[in-house]
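debug: dumping io for the single-chain case to check the tokenizer round-trip. Nothing else runs in this session.
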Amino acid sequence: MSDSAQPQKIAILGGGVAAMTAAFYLTETPDWQSKYQIDVYQLGWRLGGKGASGRNPEMGERIEEHGLHIWFGFYANAFRTIQTCYETLDRPPQAPLATWQDAFKPHDFIVLQEWIDQQWQSWPLMFPEVPGNPAHSNEELSIWALLSKLYYWIKQFMQQLQAHPQAAAVDATLSDPAITGAHPAFKQLASYLSKDADLLASRFQTDIKEALDLTGEMLEGLAQGDKAVATQHGSVLHFLLKQLKHWLDDRFDHLLDTHAEIRRLFIMADLGLCIGIGMLEDGVLEQGFDVINDIDFMDWLRKHGANEQYTVNSAPVRGFYDLVFAYVDGDISRPNVEAGTLLRAMMRIALLYKGGVMWKMQAGMGDTIFAPMYEVLKRRGVNFHYFHQVNELVPEGNSIAEIRMTRQVDLRDGLDIYEPLVDVKGLPCWPSVPNYQQINPVQAQLLQDNHINLESFWSDWPEVYQRQFGEPLSTLHLRKGVDFDKVIFGISVGSIPHLCPQLLVQDKGLDKMVGSVKTVVTQAYQIWTDTTLANMGWTNQPDGQQPVLSAFTEPYDTWAPMDQLLCREDWPPALEPKNVSYFCSVQPVSDFPPPSDHAFPARCRAEARDGAVNQLQQDIWNLLPSAASPGEFDWSILIDPLQRKGKARFDAQYWRSNIDPSERYVLSVVNSSQYRLGTNETLFDNLYLTGDWIRTGLNAGCVEAATMAGMHTSRAICGLPAVIVGEKDL
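debug: decoded output
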């Protein structure tokens, strides 16, 4: 075979969602092995990046996560990819998680927390089930059609407001003097609907239901028409929405302090109306969501008249900020997210889902996503190299010429390939620590004796190894044309300053992106209890669904019982838990010391622990009143094999601080998306960026954006996949 017919060698650095997705679609191409040789280089012992999970064999093979991972029902690309993966894997029918339907179950119950009258009040929201497979999204939906769907919900909220018994005395008419048949908007509307202007004005003034129906009638027509027609009549729609907003503010302001149901309906209606008005006033419907990325979402709501006390600072808005960890440096007093990026995500979450608004995985993220992906890719012939730490990418001209790495460990004699998975009740899983029996025995013992974390940026393993063996860890220099032709950089954006300093000097666009796309530290903890959720005091579980709750106290504003996972763990009967709960939030960290400060992770982890213990003692009684009271928590309900007493039982639980550059959550701070690069838009002709931090069309930190990034990378190299849902807005 001639040199020109040799497969191109592709080095993939990192094994997160985007990198694995890129490999998956590259290997979907016909005869891919004749075209490409794919090698994945992974730090430590497991794939997954921010989504990695592990099984702890000393604690009932429990699932230990980076945080709370739940998929949304609009994740068309992610669901299409994982469904294809499960079909390709073709597990036996009796195997655990044999199909994607076994691996994911729809979830519709969300709870928001409101701080009202110096106390926490729960606001339960049960989303309607929408038939369909989340992999089959309506990718052709226009923004006008999306606005029409939004208006359907506005109309429902406003009709419920009007029909509420406490609102019986509220005048149903829109008595604004501006509403007359002579108003230009009504003349234009009458022409559009082929109706009499005076009659329309009369209908609009007479009753709020007539006004809502009339506005909906127009919106439905505009959603089905062409862009030119919709733009022409935008001023009419704007007028109608403003009048409905005037009625809402005028009629219900005096009831908001004392009536929870009216307040919540008001918030949802006000939020929807202000979004619709803002989209019309700021040209979103003509120019796309990015046109309003120069302003924070809360400030954008204020700009368009949202009620400051009840809407701008409402639980739904805070819940979305919590969802995307939108706090600079983890400081909750500094909320910051692009209005357009958040609005795009909000509307997709609420209006475009299929099946459930959320989908819960039925095992850990590593077990449900990365183990199947790994097994399929390994079967196809992708090579995986674990314990390879990338140190630097070195350019030469406009190409990546060299990749410098450290080999973290040597395998034991006679072993050429590291096998990363373990079996837990028949399911292939990633362990929470390396498989030490596959590592050189002396090195394995040294790792365990010194409690070395091979995934940590601040690890002291190089120094420990040097002291023990009198020489440094071995290094590798991969060279262009010999070891690789193309490089897929799948390590998160926070790592680029450390791994690519020479690239940043040459490529001003890359440097600008790295300086603009911020990251934030997150923290999480999990507790296992011998008491059911209901017996701890949370009894609201409609159709058996446990809550996914947000907008709660800081730290750890988000909580979700995850009892569906207990059957996948393997506890001794005497210790078998009856509930497991996950908590997560941002962690306030703004300064990051050099890698030589080996104690930094322990300090951050201690802070995460203190925050968790404090929440259980001081705040959790608001949610679990039978397990806690103000200032007290029943520590005896925590599962602890050592049977410690009191607060010490928390030490048997799991908590973490996600401080590593590759673990931090990627933010969409104001004016940052414009600097995101596409996968192949650096100055370097053989470098492909991939991750939820590149430009995808969603531009937000989530599994869907990471999947889209991987698809973009594959398409840039091989032309597939041809369709990526949502890459060009809506």
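debug: round-trip ok. The radius of gyration is 27 Å.
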